[in-house]
Amino acid sequence: MIKQRFIKINGVRYFIKEAGNPTAPLILFLHGFPDSWYSWRHQLEAMAAAGYYAVAPDMLGCGETDAPMEIERYSQDEMAKDIAGLIEALGHKQAIIVGHDLGASLTWQICLLYPEKVKAVIALSIPYGGRALAQPIPHMKIVFSDKFFYILYFQQPGVAERELDADVYDSLLRIYFSLGAEGSEIAAQYVANDNPISAENYLDTTIRPKKLPKWLKAEDLAYYVGRYEKKGFRGILNWYRCLDIYWKRTEHLAGKKITQPTYFIAGKNDPINYMVRKAIKRLPNVVEDLRGVEFFDDCGHWIPCEQTELLNEKLLKYIGEVVGMK
Fold first, then answer.
1. Is the pTM of this model over 0.70?
2. Most buried residue among 30, 116, 149, 202 by CB atoms closer than 10 A?
3. Which residues contact 252 (CB under 8 A, 6 or more apart)?
4. Taking the CB of residue 299, how many other CB atoms lie within 10 A of it?
């Protein structure tokens, strides 16, 4: 049975969903853009049934979790502090963290900033490539030049919000389809950094499907829409606006490696793979205890929903190895 409650951490009220025995090993699930705790619903049930305590929050700025106005509050050091506090508030000293997309990016930083809080990592879609050698946004402007790149488009407050908030249903449907396995062949051209495209807005780089992708039911999409209609996309977009802020704050992390047992999973049909391909190759050099790298067939970016049973199987295997519950 999945329950819900609010927990106040560092002045912010987080909304969480939880399942299982609170005294069992804690598995913490962190979602990304533009997502919700809801994407982990099947994992919460599977982990609880296997004897674990599974928890998934709406991340900062999303759903029913607070959405502070200050952009700086979404810097990864601030959010890492939140998650470390959440682990303690849940009555645990450590958690195994499963992060997807921006949630995976944050998970890597939690490992570096609060290593004692992370027992192991399962990262989905976004690998750790080490601290950027150059300030992120200026470097992206050089790399992409006159080409459209979504992270650069997201930088100006209000611009992407006006586009995405105008029709939340249409925005989410386009994004979910275009980054999933069924839309990835067409969408891949828009994330290839050597393929110039003519786009003025983010949704110009997506496709509106004639029918829902096979992994997304109408009632599920309605739930996601309801989450983003609460506060809009501003909060999750602010995560991208803090890349330079966080980079400037964390010079001390240069050269630091991930020391926790780590597994990385991506969908073979995820167009994001093209953008992070070099970082995936670097994983053995920046992760000291890399236990496995896997790519799921017939799977795009939305791994927890596109390949639910396979992901649950792998999670139970990997987590069992770490905590001794094989």
1. yes
2. 30
3. none
4. 23
Whether 139 shows a pLDDT value over 70: the answer reads yes
Q: Share the mean pLDDT of the chain.
A: 94
- Number of domains the chain contains: 1
Note if 101 is an active site residue: yes
Report the alpha-carbon distance of residue 257 to residue 203 in Å, rounded.
36
Q: How much is the pLDDT for 91?
A: 98
**173-210 confidence digits (pLDDT tens):** 999 999 999 987 766 665 555 555 668 899 998 999 99
Q: 144 burial class (0-12, 13-18, 19+ CB within 10 angstroms)? A: middle
Cβ burial of 321 (10 Å; 0-12, 13-18, 19+) is middle
The reply to whether 35 belongs to the active site is no
Q: What tokens appear for 258 in the block?
A: 């991930």
Which entry of 58, 101, 244, 252 is annotated as an active-site residue?
Answer: 101
Helix axis angle, 102-113 to 76-89, nearest 10°? 80
Residue 292: how many CA atoms within 13 Å on its side-chain side?
16
CATH number, position 97:
3.40.50.1820
- Are the beta carbons of 48 and 20 closer than 8 angstroms? yes
Domain range for 246 is: 3-323
